[in-house]
Fold:
Amino acid sequence: MKAHFISGLPRSGSTLLAALLRQNPRFHAAMTSPVGGLVDRMLEAMSEDNEFSAFISPEQKRALILSIFSAYYQPQADKEVIFDTNRLWCSKLPLIRELFPEAKVICCVRNIAWIMDSIELLIRRNAFDVSRLFNNPAERATVYSRTEALSQGSRLVGYAYNALKEAFYSEQSASLLLVDYELLTLKPAKTMSLIYQFLGEEPFEHDFENVQYQEPEFDNRLNTKGLHQVRERVEFKPRKTILPPDLFERFDGLSFWTDATYSHASAIVAKAKLT
Structure:
């Protein structure tokens, strides 16, 4: 199985990218799959916490992990390339290198302030729902408590940000391609062409006026409708932020990926502004 991975930050175009890639009949791509979580659990089961792990050789561990991929993607056995999506892959580059030495990781990125803005907009649109993105009423209370909760190191935005930063500066960073959400929506044809070049795949003519992909059942379980909804037409729609100015400013300067001085990652992103 030829595998690549989609990772990076939430609300940054990973579902849109998957929707576009799946237009290619040679590819399979979708929103976040359970494969990453299953791999994590398998690794824990084979760790030293299990006294029987002494009987599992490194070769057997590798085969068991690969069996998760082959079993889950058996229905897509006719596809030449599988793209598995999960934010945790940025923290698993050494494992990916062991399992799929030629695999690439496409990391979707976006200004963190606009990620927080996008999540907050969804929360306000679903005013009658209690979003399960938050653990308790105190976290859900205000825009300040909501963004604070999301930015914590183990949570939706904070974990993804830290994992991306780890990958970006790691010794495996050459396998990464960072793709900025704004550029993907402003110039989708050019961006997709560059992605194909990075992957070493033959060009494909995508339909940016008719993008089809939704996962309403998953979003409904989180009581956050629209979390993985993709608009039919790929376009960038500028608007004013709904975050208070001080909150927007707090998250606005965190785009470390605009300066690749200490990384071997490739990137389709706007360059850092000179000050």
Remarks:
- The beta strands are 2-8, 27-29, 81-85, 105-109, 176-180, 266-268.
- The radius of gyration is 19 Å.
- The CA atoms of residues 126 and 224 lie 7 Å apart.
- The longest strand covers residues 2-8.
